[in-house]
Amino acid sequence: MARVTNAAVAVRVARLLEEEITSSGGKPGDFIGRRQELAARFSVAPATLGEAIQLLRSRGVVDAKPGPGGGIFVADRSPFMRLSDQLLSLREGQATVADCLRVLDALDAPVLHDAVDFATEADVEDVRLLAERLEASWGTPRSAAANWALHARIAQITPNELLRSLYTNLVDYIIEEELEGATAPTTAERLRTHLDFAAAIVSHDHGLATSALERHRGSSMAAVLP
Fold first, then answer.
1. Domains of the chain by range and CATH?
2. In sequence order, what are the residues at sequence separation of 6 or more whose Cβ sits closer than 8 angstroms to the Cβ of residue 217?
3. Among 40, 208, 41, which residue's Cα sits nearest to residue 113?
4. pTM tops 0.70, yes or no
5. 69-116 pLDDT per residue, tens
6. Rounded distance, CA 214 to CA 109, Å?
7. For 160-169, b where at least 16 C-beta lie within 10 A, e where not — what string?
8. CA 217 from chain center: how many Å?
């Protein structure tokens, strides 16, 4: 039980330290303090302070330098670490359904065209089966899950790791949080659009992909949300 409590305290200390760095406008290389001083300031054991520092180091927030003149310093964070933090903020409820859907709409074109170019036989078979499942469930409570499953599987085809990660994580977030308003009406036109996504991949047809994308932008929830 003590180990759980110490871990929770370490997380709280890490959060407080990061808030201090952010609110003070800390710049890379700025001195934060020595371990003993920080442990005393937060009234925690050295081991707990060490866990907090390790959490911040793993996320690129601070650097720890040993020896004389050493201590804890603000790290020079890479753009990818800052992007990671922004994506993590989704978990704290800072993204609305409109935010997520507009970003997904913007990413649909590169995701689909990459799928047309790079789909393997296994990818094509998966996409075909998911399209059939979507068609069979259309207009039922299962259609939303089938729709997102198709989108996510298409995104898994792209060799662009950043694009794939952004897209699939946004889809996962929408599904897990059950964001209200994330599902558009189940019209015949929208079904045909999604089936054409799959057909474009199966036939490696960029023209059909472009046509489907145009129709998708006009009928998606992002087009009507404020």
1. 2-77 (1.10.10.10), 94-223 (1.20.120)
2. 105, 108, 223
3. 208
4. no
5. 789 999 886 655 666 665 655 555 566 777 778 888 999 999 999 999
6. 9
7. eeeebebbbe
8. 21
